[in-house]
Amino acid sequence: MTSPRWHAGPDVLAAYAGNRLDDVGQAAVETHLTRCPTCRADATPLVPPTDLEPVWEGVAVAIANATPWPLRVLRRLGLRDTDLVLLRASSDLVVPFAVALMSAVTFTIIAGQVSPARQQLLYLLVAPLLPALLVAGAYDSTDPLRELAEATSLSKLRVALLRTALAAAGALPLALLMGLVPGIGLGIGLWLLPAIAVSVATLALLTWFVAPVTLAVVTAAWASVVVVLGATGNVAAASTALGQACFAAAAVVAALVLARRLGLGEGARS
Amino acid sequence: MNAHARLRGVTKSYGSTVALHPTDLDLHPGVTGLLGPNGAGKSTLLRLLATSLTPSAGSIDVAGHAVTGTLPERTEARRRLGYLPQEVGFPRRMTAFGFLDYVAVLKEWTDTDARHAEVRRVLGLVDLAELGSKRISALSGGQRRRLAIAQALMGSPILVVLDEPTTGLDPEQRASLRAMLSEQARTSAVLLATHQTEDVAALCDRVIVLDSGRVRFDGRVPDLVAMASGQVWVGPQANDAAVVSWRTGTGAVRSVGGVPRPGSHGADPAVEDAYLLMRATVHNEQGVIR
Q1: Tens digits of per-residue pLDDT, B91-102?
Q2: Of the residues A39, A62, A85, which one is the last residue of a structural domain?
């Protein structure tokens, strides 16, 4: 590349560095600077070097906080930025996350050992609740930021539901892998599906109703499902492939509704 | 002027142990220091104000919102609150920026640009602007403490509750923190528990001395210091029956309370002297010592 035969004068360079030219002028000088080492050398001292520091710090922060791929997928599916921050922080809390994950897997192993013949109506009633309680208990007992988080205003129910969905979704592939072990069976992971479906459905309903109403609606809906299964003598159907496929479908529908609702946006604090 | 925070008849008991006896307090803009020995009830009082403990009796409100009321009222109070617990167990995998971003989300900053701008602002306030990308595990103890303070100042809350904020800070950082808190206190009520009487002397408009769960003094710092007037001596030997005495760097002995020996002369009292005298008085009343 050859250097241009003309150069921008000191006044023009000073005006460019001070962003005092119009858009066309700024663009013209910028283009010239990319080709002219002489003017570039003259312009460099006119630009305060410290201006770049926040930019570099911003780049460093962005790199250090790069979103892991599962969360990038959720972002593409419409999950809100604040929920991504919560999910990421929940998994960065290594000990609580590990305890929550293991609790969820342990739950599925125990649940998987309950044969349809012995399956009780009451057990089915609390099945979606147990993983949520285990995950909440795991974070409550081991979260190093528990006291600090308690004093903040975000709904604790929302945080607990997100963590339940995260831990249950994280435990699902683990449980399915364990299901490959002879004697355990692939079915053990399926008991997590009602917990995921109910957690996500509750999150979706929270975008319409306040927490007490939401919990009442979810409890009533799940209790109705159980009562209908019990009344028709089909309690065991919940653990069949068809029953669990229904839970999976319900979870997907709830997730789509949630993504749609969050896409509409909620009141932002700024 | 309405108080930013108000306590009325607040008590806290754990079984048969009373951690805080009935307490009334109004907190206005300014810095209030909370002094007291370990186990005096300072952290209990702070945690009650920070909504992480529920009082056994009495009422607390922040900006007119009842902490002890319904969940929506408590949430409104929390929106106006910044809290630094005595110990913050940091998740070491997080970066400094990521940690503050997480706390900002917990404080309902939903707009990403505004939230990130606020995170950068408080990082700058505590001189950590260039360490946002560092993992917390790579920060020093003082830097972590400043990071914890930064989260408490996020959103310029009207009530800032700080449990021993200067622990682990070097003198320069403590001076910087004092400047920051005095600026914050122009619009916020800042309550800080500390064992550092020099922080109280340098920073606080008001001081509360708590002992055995009871408020023993609540007033201006000069009024507390005045209580030790004429009771601090410097001489070749310790006073008879001095509350406390120690040999200073000059070789002279400084005594608080007691009867001065010949050759002693009076000295200007400090917050620490008044605090030690008050502690001795409380213990005498209770028959704990002497």
Answers
A1: 878 899 999 999
A2: A62
Q: Can you say whether the dihedral through the CA atoms of A163, A169, A170, A174 is positive or negative?
A: positive
CATH superfamily, domain at B1-80+157-220: P-loop containing nucleotide triphosphate hydrolases (3.40.50.300)
Among partner residues B50, B79, B90, which is closest to A144 by beta-carbon distance?
B90
| Distance of alpha carbon A145 from alpha carbon A160, whole angstroms | 14
The pLDDT value given to residue A65: 67
**What number of CA atoms fall less than 13 Å from residue B135's CA on the CB side?**
9
- Higher-confidence position of B2 and B191: B191
**Chain B residues close to A153, C-beta within 8 Å:** 75-76, 78-79, 106-108
Query: Same domain for A185 and A248?
Result: yes
For A214-261, what is each residue's pLDDT tens digit?
A: 888 888 888 888 888 878 877 777 777 787 788 888 888 888 887 777
A269 touches B: beta carbon within 8 Å: yes
Cα gap B59→B33, rounded to integer Å: 22
Q: What is the pLDDT, as a whole number, of residue B279?
A: 84
- Tokens 């002497």 identify what position? B290
Label residue B284 by pLDDT band (50, 70, 90).
low
What DSSP designation does B210 have?
A: E
pTM of the model as a whole = 0.76
| Domain extents in chain B | 1-80+157-220, 89-154, 225-286
Give yes or no for B122 touching A (CB within 8 A): no
Domain limits at A19? 10-62
End-to-end CA distance of chain A: 49
What is the ipTM, given to two decimal places?
0.82
In-domain check, residue A80: yes
Within this chain, do residues A132 and A18 fall inside the same structural domain, yes or no?
no
pLDDT in tens, A158-196: 888 888 888 888 887 887 777 777 766 666 666 677 778
Number of domains in chain A: 2
Residues of chain A with Cβ-Cβ distance to B130 below 8 Å are 53, 57
* Rounded alpha-carbon distances, angstroms, from residue B15 to A141, B26, B49: 21, 27, 20
Residue B233 forms contact with A (CB below 8 Å): no
**A91/A57 same-domain check:** no
Angstrom distance (rounded) from CA B278 to CA B214: 13
Taking the Cβ of residue B91 and every Cβ of chain A, the question of whether any pair is shorter than 8 Å is answered with yes
